[in-house]
Design a protein that fits this description.
eight-stranded parallel barrel; single chain; globular; about 250 residues; alpha/beta
C-alpha cells in the first residue's frame, strides 16, 4: 500500500505564501519523485492559486471541510461540488477543531462524508480522543464510536483514509508513544471491517496526525498500521513537510 502524506494548512496562507510553499514542494517533487502520495489542503481562498501551482505535478489538492448540501442558502460555506470544481481530489472531514469549535456531531460529519462521495472526492476522516478521555481509559471506545457514527457504509477503500489525531497532541508538541499509536490504529483497522467490505478494511490508509515533525516522523511512520500522516504546522514549512513525506516509505 502506498502511503499518504497530507498537509493541513488550516487558516494560514495568503496568496504569496501559498504559491511559494506549493511551488517549493512542486520543485522538490520534480527533482525527486516523492515516496508516497502527497496532498496539500490550503484554506479555501487559496485553492485556485495552489491548484495552478500544482498543475502537472504528482501532488494532489484537498479541501479542509465541506457543507453537507451540494448548494443553497448557506452563507460562508463551501460545498463538495465546489471543491471538486476547484481541482480538489480530497477533503478533510471531522477534524477535532471542527468538532470542538463548530460543534460538529458525528451525524453531521457523516452527512459531509456522503456529500463528498457524491461529488467524487476522497475522504480523509479524522477521529481522536481528548486528554480526559485518554486518561479515563476510554480512548479506544471514543475512536470506535466516532468511526462507527461518522463514516457512511460502503465507501471504497481507495477513496477513504482515516486520520487518527489525539486531540491532546494537536499543536501541543506532545505525541503518543509508538505503542499507543499502534494500539489505536489496530483498533481502527478492526472497526473498519464493519463499515467497509471486510476484505477492503486492510486497504484503507490509516494516517497519524498530532504534532508530527521531522524529528519524530520516522518512528511514527514506521509503526504498524500507520499508512502515512496528516500534518498540521509542519506542513507550512516545505523542508519539514518533505522530510515527513520521506519518512513515509
Amino acid at each position: 500500500m502506498r502511503k499518504l502524506c497530507a498537509g493541513n494548512w488550516k487558516m494560514n496562507g495568503l496568496k504569496r505564501e501559498a504559491v511559494a510553499l506549493a511551488g517549493a514542494l512542486v520543485a522538490r517533487a520534480k527533482a525527486e519523485m516523492p515516496p508516497c502520495d502527497l496532498v496539500l489542503c490550503p484554506p479555501a481562498t487559496a485553492l485556485g492559486w495552489v491548484a495552478a501551482a500544482l498543475a502537472g505535478s504528482p501532488i494532489g489538492l484537498g479541501g479542509q471541510d465541506c457543507h453537507p448540501a451540494d448548494k443553497g442558502a448557506h452563507t460562508g460555506d463551501v460545498s463538495a461540488p465546489m471543491l471538486k470544481d476547484a481541482g480538489c481530489r480530497y477533503v478533510i472531514l471531522g477534524h477535532s477543531e471542527r468538532r470542538a469549535n463548530h460543534g460538529e456531531s458525528d451525524a453531521l460529519v457523516r452527512a459531509k462524508c456522503e456529500a463528498a462521495r457524491r461529488a467524487g472526492l476522497a475522504v480523509i476522516l479524522c477521529v481522536g480522543e481528548t486528554l480526559a478521555e485518554r486518561d479515563g481509559g476510554t480512548a479506544l471506545d471514543v475512536v470506535a464510536r466516532q468511526l462507527a457514527n461518522s463514516l457512511p457504509d460502503g465507501i471504497p477503500a481507495g477513496e477513504l483514509a482515516i486520520a487518527y489525531e489525539p486531540v491532546w497532541a494537536i499543536g501541543t508538541g506532545r505525541t503518543p508513544t509508538v505503542a499507543q499509536v499502534e494500539q489505536v490504529h489496530a483498533h481502527i483497522r478492526a472497526t473498519l471491517a464493519a463499515k467497509v467490505a471486510p476484505a477492503q478494511a486492510k486497504d484503507v490508509r490509516i494516517l497519524y496526525g498530532g504534532s508530527v515533525k521531522p524529528d519524530n516522523a520516522v518512528p511514527l511512520m514506521g509503526a504498524k498500521n500507520v499508512d502515512g500522516a496528516l500534518v498540521g504546522g509542519a506542513s507550512l514549512v516545505a523542508g519539514d513537510f518533505w522530510a515527513i513525506a520521506q519518512a513515509c516509505l
